[in-house]
Amino acid sequence: MEYYHLFTKNRCPHCKEAVSILKEKKLEYVVSSMDKAPAALAKLKESAGHSTVPIVFKVDEENQYSFIGGCDDLKGSFENDSNEENETKDVEEATAE
User: Which uninterrupted H or E stretch holds 91?
Assistant: First the structure.
């Protein structure tokens, strides 16, 4: 089962937006609030190479974490998926004719 793991801060509007996007798409996700763990958040930011929250990962069936980025990157990942699906449909329709 794939799911998303978001590292957030409670008052962050971009974090709330990222959660809303996943809820809207009915995807499974886990939220880890980092408000009480600033040192852990700093280390996570450094290791991910990402300076803001949310920090979003997609977790695959083998529990492998793939870094997505922040809220805009999350939105972009769904736009890319949508574009790839449309391209596949276009190719399938063209070959059916």
Answer: helix 71-96
